[in-house]
Every structure is written in structure tokens, then in C-alpha cells.
User: Fold this.
Amino acid sequence: MAMSMVEALRDAMDVKLAEDPGVVIFGEDVGYFGGVFRCTAGLQEKYGEQRVFDTPINESAIVGMAIGMATHGMRPCVEMQFADYMYPAYDQITQEAARMRFRSNGQFTCPMVIRMPTGGGIFGGQTHSQSPEALFTHVAGLKTVIPSTPYDAKGLLIAAIEDPDPVIFLEPKRLYNGPFNGDHQAKSVSWSQHPDGEVPPDHYTVPLGKAAIRCSGNEVTVLAYGTMVYVAQAAAEESGVDAEIIDLRTLLPLDLDTVQQSVEKTGRCVVVHEATKTSGFGAELIAEVQEACFWHLKAPIQRITGWDAPYPHAAEWDYFPGPKRLGAALVKAMKY
Amino acid sequence: MKKNAPALTFPKPPARPNESPDFSSVDVGVAGELGVPPIDIVAADCRPYANGLIRVLNDEGHAVGPWADFIDDVDLEFLTQGLRDMMTIRTLDQRMLNAQRQGKTSFYVQCTGEEAIGCAFQRQLQPGDMNFPTYRQQSLLIAAGYSMELLMGQLYSNELDPMQGRQLPVMHSSRKDGFFSISGNLGTQYIQAVGWAMANALTDDGKITAGWIGDGATASNDFHSALLCASVYQPPIVLNIVNNQWAISTYTGVASGKSRTYAARARGYGIPSLRVDGNDYLAVCAVSRWALTRVRQGYGPVAIEWFTYRTAPHSTSDDPSAYRPRDEAKAWPLGDPIDRLKQHLIVNEAWSEERHVQTQAQLLDEITTTQKAVEAHGTLVDNKPLSPALMFNEVFAEMPEHLRRQRQESGF
Assistant:
């Protein structure tokens, strides 16, 4: 059945709400209204307000309550309205949820999911566009997931809800309603015309910690996730470089095997993300790749990211790492 | 400064070192004065209970007033056990303080002067209820009958430590004893307690939750989050605020501002709130029972301010003589919880000075014997370390590949 990413995410929650009485969904505007991006639309009506409900505008309370429920044995799946709004909850996420199992030696655990829309491209300015994935991958005890297709969004979210540990579930909001290759002037495409918009209606999982090869190639490996998967595809097409595009899907734990095999084959690697450059997840990827594949590398690893500036409103498309910049990096990698 | 110009206030304690303790501004009311509110009371009607002070034991050691009647089935044997609980934790505190001074453990926190609160509260809980304590509520563990070997094992981070050396000495965790894992961060667990209480209701498990916070941490955002969410969702929770006057060196006025009491602050969130003499074992017993009964019967959350005084330093890393008069504890108008319950039992001919001395000696003997046995498994002085490889376990349910590689690299 053709689904947008929003519908696929909703379907994942629907499946889990039906299957597991311990699953509860809550956050700002997620109940009666169904979420500002509509991800939970209709779920309260279907399952009742005991299972799907609105919260005060207080992210640390949302996560704090979820920790209480998760340690009790429930499986909360909560929403941060934007990833940009998660900072008040960062203490609860990093020092509480992430370390509960460790500090209590397994007496108390946090099987919970924190969903949050991430990334820019919707003219959201500096408080509705951020990509804070590195702030989560840097924390011991958290898993960090980011899908790029409706199929993966549903399968990964079900896997995340079933995971015994806390999972940060980043949703590239520019992909909610269709794939986006970085050309903001092109006519928008809907998921219904995309093969990965086909989503089975029942329960299935996409395992955490496994990357997907979106496009096989021989000359250069592109490590991407979220929106950048489509930007990479466009960049490869436009530049004519025979690129292998890996969609990491889970940033932590990282599927280093898939990455290593690809880079050993191509001998070149380009890393791309929308988040700011310095200390970004790309730095981690580059370190891992050079450590694992040093003797196979024919060129310095290239890195294309958002600039080290807050996400600007008016100059959004000059900030967004589009196919032109990425294509140039692919060509540069080929020059060595 | 210009006349009528705005000026900031910086709250100051009544006395600093080398000054005479001064609690003349502390209004302790009269024992037996306040009544027992109806079980379904609403916040609007709680003003006298939130602003006043519920007391049962008077200065002569008699239990007086409606709250004494409320627990008239509590017999002297039960109270004698309460006294033993308090004497146990105080003796343990002294022994462990000494052990820290001898370098056997890195850190310790005493609860001296506050023993009645946890000891009496715990005995009103039922199996399966969950406390979300702070690090000054070891008294809950003692009254719950937690193994002294495990408790001391954690203090020494030796092989008896149920946390296997992962957590600070006093940050205990015992799920089966209704004692939630202590974070070490302040305030964070207050809102988690609300979440657990919501799970009590959502799963209909018939249990209730108790959140704990100190007066200093009421300043944290999580305190306000917890009160708001408890007010919004009405889960079965007792929200305890232990007001012991000091947050390390920071005087309670810096957390309270111009608010009159912490109970009044909780009442402002629409939560029925009471303020209680925390050094009065019978008052703690009575109000805990009332609050837990109310919560268990589904009438919604309650907040309780336990009014007490932190006699001990904040921790073994603290020196209170640097910021308050040395003899301030002695001047506390509500006395010492052990002395007061002891007096009550003697007045009622259930206890004597001789028995007290005997019990004290016996407890010291028992605890010292256990301590020696636990120390045989290692202390920081006589270190028998656990495998450092344990640090890689319990980060995740299943060890991911990158952590496995790091463990291998570490060589542990």
C-alpha cells in the first residue's frame, strides 16, 4: 500500500498500539489534533486518551514521564515536536534514560523511543531546522536511528519500539511527504510514485544497526542518511560519478561492516550530512573509515555538510548541502 | 542609592558562623492544633495545612490532637521498631562516616536529624510501591529491611556491590525494596516518579509511587514539571519535599524566595498539600498513612513538605562550619527525632534509658560485625577490585560491535 513517511510512521505506531498494551504515545499536540506533522492523526480516536495523549509544553517532562513509564515496564513512544525543542529534555535523555540500565546494573531499563523531526528545507529558520544527531551518538547508552523511506520508517520505528534500550528516532521532515533531492525549485514528488513508498500494512521490522546500499557503484562510496540519501543520488547522476550510496539508517550502532566493504571496493569515500560540520557525525565516520580502510583509500575523504552557522531563514538553500556541492566533492575525489 | 529605586534582595540565613543560632522566625505552631482533612480534600481547602505545621508529639512527649487519634491503632511495639529503625540508620551513618574518614570508601552522605521521615514513611508503604528517593533517604532502605551487606558492599564497591562498582557509593538501587535507582542529579527523578505513577494507573497494578526531593532542588525545572504533570494527570503519587533548611551551603530562602512554604508552592499547582514536623515520628507516620490512603483510593496526588533540619554536613566533601553556626542543629526548635520518640516511649513506659543504651550497644555491635564481614571483601584501603571489563556491560541490553571492540582494545 502506498504511504507517505508520515503515514508509515503512523502505521508503525498503530501496529504497536494494537499489539502491545504497554505502548503509549504522547507529546505536544499529538493527541486530539494528531501532531503538527500529522504523524499521530487518528490514533487517539482509535485507541483512547489513555494510550495517546497531549502533554504540557515541557520536553523534559515528556521524557521524564516516559522514563518513569519505561522503567515500570511500559513502552512509551514520545514525540518532540521538533528536534530543535529537545534541548530542555537533554538532561533526562543523556543522564537518565541513557544510563539507567548501566547505573542500576540492569534493575531498571528504559525501553522507550523519542521521535523528533529533524533537518531543514521547510523555511523553518534556526529553531525548526536543526540536525542534532551528533549530540545523541556522542552519548553512551543511546541508539540513534534516521530513516529515509516510508518502508524503513515503519520497519525501523517498530524495531525501535521493540528495542530494550532508549532509541532516538530522527525523522527527516523534508522527506515526510515525498523524496527530496535538494532541488527546491523542482516540482515536489509524492511517495506514491516512489518504489520505497510501498509499505506493507502489517507488522514487520527493519533491524537497527544495519545500513542499506541505495545505489551500487564502483568509484566512490557516499555515506549518507535521511534527506541526504536523495541529494547523493542526484549528485551522482548530475556529476556522472559511479557512486555507491550507503544509507546508514542507524547511526549508532553503526554498520561499519557495510561501510568498510564498500570503501575497500571503491577506494574513495565522501561523507555528507545536513548538520554543522565541526564535531559532526561526519567526523566520526571519517575517523572510522580511515582507521578501517586506510590502505584502500586512493583519495582524502571528502566531507560536505551544513556550514558552521545557525540554520539561516532566508538563505536556507545556500546553507543546505545540495547536489551541486556534493557533486563537486565527488568529482574532486575522482581527481586523486 | 536613590530613594524608591529598585533593589535586589539576596536571601540570607538567620545566622552565619560565629553568630548565635536564631530560629526566632520559625513558627512551629502547637502540637495537636491542626485537624485531619477529609480524604478527598481539594487544594483550595488545604491552605491551613500547607501554611501551618502538623505536629503530634508535644514537648512533654505525649501524642496529642486529631492526628494522634488518626493513628490510635499504632501500638508501642510498632513505635519501638520505629525507634530501632532510626537508631540503626544513625549508627550506620556514624560507622560509614568513620569508614570514609579512614579512606575505605570515597564518599558518604548522612541523614542525621532526618531519620524519622524515611523510617516512618516506608513503614506505611506496601510491597510493590515505588520510592524515587534522593541520596539522603537511606532510611527508606533500612525500614524496608534492605540487606546491610548489599548496602555496605556498594559503599565499598566490592564484590558484594549490587551495582558492581558502576555507581557512587550512596546512590543505591533496589527494585524489589521499592527503591528506585538514584541518579545523583538533583530533581530529575521527581518527574520520572510522576511517569511511574502514571504507569501504576495505566497498567492498573494497584500500586502507588512516592517522589522525593530536597528544598534546594525544588528550584529545578523538574520539580515544577512534576507538580504540573501530577496536577494535570492525577496519578497515584505522594510528592515528598524534604525541607532541611540547607542545600550544601545555600540557605533555603534562596530556593523559596518570598513563598511562605514549599507546601504552599505545591498547592499553587492545584495539588492538596500539607506541611509536617519531619522530626516527629508519629506525625510522619500519621500523615504518610493519610496521604498514601488517599492516593491509593484514587483521590489524586498529595504533596507533603517535611519540615526538618540537616544536622550533618551535606556530604563527606562538605564543611558546614564555613557557612552556618556550629551549634545550629542543637537550636532547632523541633528537636531530634530519636530523642523525641524515645521520650514518648519512656513517657508511655515502653522504653527506658537503660534499654536505649543497651539497644544502642547491640546495634553498634551488629553493624560493626556486618561491617567487618563486608570489609573482608575489599575496601578502597584493602582493594580487591572487580574486573574493569564490567564497565562495558549493561551499557546496552546486547553489547554492540563497537563496544566489543573497545573492550578488546582495553585488554580487560
In short: The radius of gyration of chain A is 19 Å. Chain A touches chain B through 46 residues (CB under 8 Å). The first helix of chain A runs from residue 5 to 19. The CA atoms of residues 7 and 39 of chain A lie 7 Å apart.
